[in-house]
Amino acid sequence: MHSAAALSTHPIASHATGDVIADILDLGKPSPDLAMVFATSAFSGASEDILRAIDVLLKPANVLFVSSSGVLGAGSEVDGTAALSLWVFWSETLKNDVVVIPLDEGLEGVDYLSRRRLASAQAVVVLADPALPMVTQTIESLCELRTNRVLSGGLLSGSNGAPSICDSTGRSFNCVAVAFHSTSAEAVIAYGSAPIAGPMTITSSTGAMVRELDDESALDVAYEVLKHGDIEDRTSAAQNLALAVLAPETMTVVDVHEVLGADKTSGAIAIAATLAEGTIVAFHRKDSPVATFAFNDALAGGRSSGALLFTCSLIDPKAANEGVSDLGPLTESLGTASYVGVHVSTVIGTGSNGPGLSAAPLSAIIFGPRHR
Fold this sequence. Notes:
Elements: E1 2-8, H1 13-25, E2 34-40, H2 47-58, E3 63-68, E4 70-73, E5 76-79, E6 84-90, E7 98-102, H3 112-120, E8 123-128, H4 135-145, E9 150-156, E10 164-166, E11 172-173, E12 175-180, E13 185-190, E14 193-206, E15 209-213, E16 216-217, H5 218-228, H6 234-239, E17 241-246, E18 253-263, E19 268-271, E20 280-286, H7 295-299, E21 306-311, H8 318-322, E22 324-326, H9 328-334, E23 339-351, E24 354-358, E25 362-367
Parallel strand pairs: 2-3, 8-9, 21-23
Antiparallel strand pairs: 1-6, 2-6, 3-10, 4-5, 4-23, 5-22, 7-12, 8-12, 9-23, 10-11, 13-25, 14-15, 14-20, 15-16, 15-19, 17-18, 17-20, 18-19, 21-25, 23-24
Helix pairs in contact: 1-2
């Protein structure tokens, strides 16, 4: 498969649309299987005109317009100001490789064929308005349907207006899934944390209380980590302490849980999850300024054929002050400029308990051959 991305920050919708379409037409490729338009809220009212222009000039088999508070594309992040980001996808495998499936009525409102497509697709991206009633249940049902399969996306965030999703036929969606039938992909999460000590094994736990790590009092171990670790700001590290769950075979991070407190009497620490004895963990510091650039480890230097990113925090804080910021390190990690993204309120990704809504700040779906 192939993909391409384009971004325009022109404040006039027609000019911005022309800019991104021209970038794609310059590639000289045939009509794409999918075109996804991510726009900031400034362009929400122009969705019909934007989609009509893309439909006429690019002739995609499927097209979606998504507005939210901020967007990513072509190596940049835009927050608050006007911006239009376009991602186009060519399958090269099946003529009808991409299918757009509305989920406003939940899985119960989906016909048999669409349900089969959602269950068997190589990858599924889901986007939803968090104000939709029962949206959490819809996401959970979809996650159950796709256990051990690639699933990514997010609940959109609004700014100066509610987020919106629509297509070129005029249909609006509160929740929609995009199923990629045969294209290989990998779901990746950046947990917003960086390691400070470990790995170690939970040798005693009760519910959400971790009592012992490597047969030592968990609280004593935490004190030692904060006292002797290579940490510049120990107070901040203590306030943002977390336990990361590691995969036994690879020692890669599969989930991160915040440390909520401690019981001095028992020497246990409380975390935001239930972890069994024998679980391999490491102490992490959440909100690390380099944590969202964890894709280097996730991809191990591989080059992707494109990516969709969903982030509920600014990847580059400069965007909050300057409106537009450069995402050079992220582009380097992905090995391509053919990615776009959108700001969301909650990400959807795969953690230690399978796919689902996540407290991680960033989720991505990386297309192409396996990257490890």
